[in-house]
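cron nightly-structures :: item 1 of 1
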Amino acid sequence: MVELKVRKFGNSLGVVLPKEVISRLNTQDGAPLYLTEAPDGGYRLVPYDPDFETKMAKAEDIMRRYRDTLHVLAQ
C-alpha cells in the first residue's frame, strides 16, 4: 500500500504519484489514468486500456440481445 497525500493545486486538489507507482502503472507525464470503481466498493487507478472499449461494446451487445434471459437468470 502506498500512502498519498491530497494537496491543493491552484483551485483543484490532487495527489503526487511516487516514481515506483508511475513505473508500475507504466505511465508518463500527460498520459491519462482512470479512477475506476472496484466491485468491493473501493477504487482502482488504472492506465488506459485500448481493448476496454471493444470489450465493453461486445458485453453491451450480449446484454442487449440476451436481456430477457439475463433477467430470468438474475432472479
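cron nightly-structures :: done
Residues 6-73 form a domain with the Pemi-like Protein 1; Chain: D fold (CATH 2.10.260).
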